[in-house]
Amino acid sequence: MSEKFYATEPAALTLPGADLLVGAVDGHVHACPHINHRSIDVLQAVQQAADAGMRAIGLMDNFANSSGMAALANRHLGHLGVETFGGLIMEPAAGGIDADNVRIALKLGFGAPGDGARFISLPTHHTRHTARLENRAESYVAECLAIPESGALPEPLPEIMDLVAEADVVLNTGHLSAVEALRVVEEASARGVSRILVPSSHFDGETVRDLTGKGAHVEFSFFFVTHATQTGLTHVDAARNTVPPVSATQMAALIAAAPGDKVVVSGDCGVFLLPPPVEGLREFLLLLESCGVPRADLRRMVQDTPAALFRIGQ
What we know:
α2 (42-51) crosses α3 and α4 (99-107) packs parallel to α7 (157-167). The protein has one domain (10-224, 241-309): Metal-dependent hydrolases (TIM Barrel, Alpha-Beta Barrel), CATH 3.20.20. It is an alpha/beta fold. A six-stranded parallel sheet has the order 4-5-6-7-8-9. α2 (42-51) links the parallel β1 (25-29) and β2. The termini are far apart. The chain has twelve helices and nine strands.
């Protein structure tokens, strides 16, 4: 059986929604090594994206800075026409919330144009908000990041925001509560961060409007509307924790609450329970279209907006 998910024959383009993938940017692909099973590795992900005519993919990794993996993929598979980029999620396993770790991430690569992190993210599973959603023990919750409603941000977040602003890369707010995300957006903007992406699948319409009104982009991902939310997946230890699912109609309503040029849609695929990233993104786009999101808007949300946000081709 071929390692390629998409055939290279023209017949592959007859799949419904395949045209939406041409020129697409999926900034949320999990294909790096993991402690759970992956459906695909980085090299396969690049090849499949190329077969579908995609423009770029972004590697997310809860265990390591993915910038080096992206640089390696570009060095050996750049001729396929897919730009691969990476970044740092500041989970404990990846070095935690540390300014020196961010400095390394921003430079890691082989010195080629585009090397180094294109995004720096606050933790995903090590925030108090998400830990409580996952029903973690309070001893675990107490060690996770919490953003205060007022006063100084926890150190070294201000320094990290300054580094992100200077490098002109994306600050991803990670998995925070709505109140926390709004506070981070305000503080980051005040420190000169101009590229901010907020995972917003679990927020309400008012929060989405507030976030985009403050200049942030909001991200909606396929993972949260899928069956993968129904089974526990370990990210740190032997505990198998879940997060609440979101219905596709709810997500379409949240998308409608935001200006079209502030929305990014992504797959968040790679876990073995879901289709490989390219197929997952195709299914997601069709699902959103069936829930009333216009096709022209979907093209912008998966092509133009993420390409500009992550500086694809620059």
